[in-house]
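Quarterly update from the structural biology core.
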Amino acid sequence: NTVGMHAGIQQLNIPVQANKNYRYTFYYNLLSGAMATNLGIRDSNGDFEGKIVSLLPTGGIWKQYTRDFTVPSSFTGDFRDIIRIKNGEGYIDNVSITEIPTISLVKDGNMEANNLNDWRSYGLPTRLTEKTTIKSHSPIKSIHLNTIGTSAGIQQLAIPVKANKSYRFSFYYNSSGVMNPYLGRGTSNGDFEGKVIQLATTNNAWKLYMREFTIPADFASDFRIIIKGTNSDSYIDDVVIEEIFSRTLVMDGNMEANNLIEWGNYGVPTVPTEKSAVRAKSPTKSLHINTTRATAGVQQLDVPLKAGKKYRLTFYYNLVSGALTPRLGIGTSNSDFEGKIVSLSSTGGIWKQYIRDFTVPANFVRDFRLLAIIKNGEGYIDDVNIELLP
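Predicted structure, tokenized:
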């Protein structure tokens, strides 16, 4: 409580190390006044990167502040964390500084800069793209993108990714219409992997989009992020590209995402495929497929497997009726690359596991496909996984 004054708390001699990457987080519930935080080296009055962040009252709820940073190579000791309030009252909890393998390659991804210098327009929005405090995921600002009556967005060029490295791209969005995120290589007019993603309205809630990818061996420069809105009023926050050291081979295999972005249709189900909480293996949702009087299912393309390697496919299924066929394809969804035809029958209301070991051909190049097809029936699928075997 600093009503009538300006004061706070600090911790000195935090044992960070030179050249290491860290994530600084804390939760705050600010009732009044203004909260500020900074990270100092042998000084509590300034920030070692020149960043002094001011946080506004939270309306009685808890919010999280997050910041990634790299300790300078010249660092020798006395790293400090300072949190203070000017003429107000608030609560602070769960303060943490933890080492992380890498920091985001996206500039101003948390949208907290006071300008749009790191973000360029894509197309011609009907209203100028702007930073706003009306809605934010964390901590206080987001980018507001209004494309009602048109299609346009934001982009960031020359992201310093490296050939043969794998990365995770993610951001939070709150949108009233369709949004299309994609990744460009030397152009903003197409995705470098040919992916076409459509994110539907979020009904005034924040949702997370995530994608993993690997940079081609012949990549030289100018990797791009593009996030486009079509006839939508949208907010974008916490855009991140970070290096990962092993890719998830099956995206959304636990079926916990709030959408079906990673799972495309195969055939034309009579009832749309959907996520369901009616039956789930773990933890809360499964994939529900209903193909009464039809043969259809779901598929995932471009699974990032490697030539000559041995893998194990596993998943759980709860088949109410009909027959379930798992299939692995290369360049086609209409046949199995090993010629296997498997027909799994009704499980009587219980969950069963399917396991298959396979070796990717030595001449494999790209577009390995995973399918689950149900003929004239209904079922649930969960915990889909492909793992590399020794």
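The two ends are 58 Å apart (CA to CA).
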